[in-house]
Amino acid sequence: MSSDKSRMDEMIEAAHRNREQKEKSYRGRALKLFPKICARCGREFEGKRLRELTVHHKDHDHDNNPPDGSNWELLCLYCHDNEHARDEVSQWYDNTPTGSREADEPTLTHKPFEGLSDLLNRMKKDESGEK
């Protein structure tokens, strides 16, 4: 069991190193291509604060790194987190329920006003004295 755990730890560590190398390569290129300004909030970054500026992949595909940087934009940590949070929320709302139901079928079965028309008609009859 411990050998499986150590092998898993090695694989995770290798994946982290690979990701860090990849990020360094396109981040370095992006910092050379673009001004060191967040594309959303407009804050400028320099010196130690430059580490707060991240590369956002516009199509969310971290393997799509064209040399001209057309899939990137520089975002500060806060705007980058906000961008991904908005994307997650929109994907959550876009998902249609799966299963046997059709997408156009309502998910709620309770009809709170179902007998309202009959009730109002009866009330009108009662007020007018009709039977």
Strand order of the largest sheet: 1-2
Indicate the mean pLDDT. Answer: 83
As a percent range, the share of helical residues equals 40-55%
Largest sheet: 2 strands, antiparallel
Helix/strand-derived class? mainly alpha
Unreliable spans are none
Report the portion of residues in β strands.
5-15%
Shape: elongated
Cα-based radius of gyration, to the nearest Å: 28 Å
**Total beta strand runs:** 2
Number of helices: 3
When the domains are counted, the total is 1
Instruction: Give the helices and strands as they follow along the chain.
Output: HEEHH
Q: Between the first and last Cα atoms, what is the distance in angstroms?
A: 82 Å
Outline the structure in words.
The chain is built from 3 helices and 2 strands, in the order αββαα. It has 131 residues and is mostly helical. It has one domain (2-105). Strands 1-2 form a two-stranded antiparallel sheet. The termini are far apart.
Please give a handful of descriptors for the protein shown.
131 residues, 48% helix, 3 helices
